[in-house]
Design a protein that fits this description.
The structure is a homodimer. Chain A is of the alpha/beta class. Chain A contains twelve helices and twelve strands. The first copy, chain A, has helices spanning 11-18, 22-29, 37-50, 56-63, 79-94, 111-120, 136-141, 166-179, 195-211, 227-239, 252-265, 294-309, and strands at 68-73, 98-103, 125-128, 147-150, 161-164, 185-188, 220-221, 246-249, 271-274, 287-291, 321-324, 327-331. Chain A has a six-stranded parallel sheet with strand order 2-1-3-4-5-11, sandwiched between helices. The model of chain A is unreliable at 1-5 and 334-347 (pLDDT under 50). The structure holds a DNA duplex.
DNA sequence: CTGTTAGCGCCTTCAA
DNA sequence: TTGAAGGCGCTAACAG
């Protein structure tokens, strides 16, 4: 149709068709009041006819702000992170930002590259769920843009973060099991190098302390990374002569692995765990789950970041830490069909 | 530290520090062979010292290619779409592209705006899971960049798409139920305006035809949009005097709603459905699920798109249609504990 | 109300 | 082996 270079029509092309300068086209598209109605209409007509779209890349080069914020998560396939991403996007959109997402696929060593890539693409800020325990690359990133951490706290970094009540939630759920008289509780956890793993173990331990019960170290398994390793660990525990009477799992994937082991073994043990998941309420197992709003982690992180973007370099607020509350949800019945004690909270 | 404008140091700043021109910095960063080793080292040192990062926005303005492809999905919280997104990202990364993700949050009327926004940000191509049945905005988008559809076919558009075997999968799963002697099968489906809904109903119907069984229209429910509506529809069906003896569900959320209804009602019916989901194998229900690789849909879509990006305008291949195979997975046992017949496929 | 000039950060082309 | 000029598409700042 129209003679155009590889990139489609430009303002210049539109202007030529509407018989005005590119500058006037720019004004019209920006809703600048100082343009006559007649001109405005001609410009819009030309835009329509050419299918013209303003080049945001050139625009942001000129204006010095890309309107994009970056999000780095470890595993988008985990509903936890996809909810978090949706929360970020919700708030980002609300404030006129676009979210660019990167997934490190559980490989901590890929994270620095992803972060750099986002910075190269001129994101104005970053929200990161740190994959590993090293965070130097984030310190480097902070030289360029503000960084907000989600789900894990900064380590040697001075920046905002959004956490869940890892310690409190784990303690409360464990206390439920203890209150029912279960004293031999196995702990199935992710690597203790992860903040969440360590905190949740701490909560598990604190509940025991408060109940005056000594946890059996022989029933503690850490370093589980997915449902499969959790299933294997559970099967091994169930086969022991001193098998546990209840289970505590530190996240949704570990709970699911443990549940698979229980159901395959046809054993019904009370299970407590972090993260609620689909169909947990109808499994017919006595479950005590620490539930929280993953979307809200994303929303809060985005709010913190965007707030920071609104302040000049000089008047940045001190780093903040926001905590998302957890609540305990109880499902299912005991093996003998007797309902569990009165739920503390329910859906 | 260094005097810098809002956007951080530029090649010019690096050059000044390394006592070369910006042009030479550009050459070094591009691995251009025509630079002396001494200069190269001075430049790298300056880059390090300033924490310099090349501005990809300016670069792509000059080079005329952003290196980004856009993906539009309807609901990232559905594992189906998050897997699809991971598949897209995997292939995109492999070919040096970056994926920019937009989520329409189930609101079809937001899709055009998202598509336009991605085009404004200079994505070089788009992969779209169309939210509604109208696709004119995609025709407009195709004036700018290639568009590949995922999970739903083009309607009045000439472009590539990646589909699953909706018809075949539904027919096969339904045939399993019929082969076991269930003739009163309820159909719980999403709106028939969606391609997948219509195709899966067609497969359901075809299996009945082939088995010489007449489906009961009174047991067909369409227009279900989520687990809650599916649960309600299932409860209603179970309460009828002529209640069904088996259920067919057209997607994971509908299956989950139906399962919740069954388990709450303490009724065990054989259930067939599209999409596998977490823990389906340990629910203890007789399930016949149509499983497929959602990642692969994303990977194929990305391959088709990137292939097209590699061809000049003149030599574009004709539009292609790729189909992702399905397989039937059977789980669980009959209500009386008797195992189901020999599985046709298994995990 | 509208146009001209200049430059955002980078890279292609040409010259030294 | 290196640098200078010019321009990708857009828009502030200043004319007119």
């Amino acid at each position: 149709m129209t003679a155009r270079r590889a990139g489609g029509p430009t303002m210049h092309d539109v202007g030529k068709l509407a018989q005005v300068s590119a500058m006037t086209v720019s004004r019209v598209l920006k809703n600048d009041p100082g343009v006559s109605e007649a001109t405005r209409e001609r410009v819009f007509a030309a835009v329509d006819r050419l299918g013209y779209r303003r080049n945001e890349t050139a625009r942001s080069l000129r204006l010095g702000g890309s309107g994009m914020i970056g999000l780095v998560v470890t595993n988008l396939a985990n509903p936890f992170y996809s909810r978090l991403a949706l929360g970020v996007q919700e708030v980002a959109t609300e404030y006129g930002f676009r979210m660019v997402l990167s997934n490190s696929a559980e490989q901590a060593d890929r994270e620095p590259g992803l972060v750099d890539g986002l910075i190269d693409h001129q994101v104005e800020g970053l929200i990161v769920v740190p994959a590993g325990s090293r965070q130097q690359h984030l310190a480097a990133a902070m030289r360029h843009v503000p960084v907000v951490l989600a789900a894990r706290p900064p380590a040697g970094l001075d920046t905002d973060c959004v956490l869940v009540e890892d310690f409190h939630g784990a303690r409360e759920a464990t206390a439920c099991l203890l209150a029912e008289g279960h004293t031999r509780i196995a702990f199935l956890g992710n690597p203790p190098s992860l903040y969440t793993g360590a905190e949740r173990l701490r909560g598990f331990w604190a509940a025991h302390d408060e109940a005056g019960v000594e946890p059996d170290n022989a029933l503690i398994r850490q370093g589980l990374v997915d449902a499969a390793t959790a299933e294997a660990a559970t099967l091994e525990l169930l086969g022991r002569p001193d098998a546990p009477a209840a289970l505590f799992c530190t996240n949704n994937r570990i709970s699911q692995g443990a549940i698979r082991a229980l159901l395959k073994s046809d054993v019904t043990l009370p299970l407590a765990g972090f993260d609620d998941f689909d169909l947990s309420d109808v499994l017919g197992l006595p479950l005590t789950l620490v539930s929280y709003d993953a979307d809200e982690i994303g929303r809060e992180a985005a709010r913190l970041l965007i707030d920071r973007l609104g302040h000049k370099e000089a008047e940045q607020p001190p780093s903040r830490r926001v905590t998302i509350p957890t609540r305990v949800v109880r499902h299912g019945v005991h093996a003998d069909g007797r309902p569990l004690g009165p739920p503390r909270t329910d859906t």
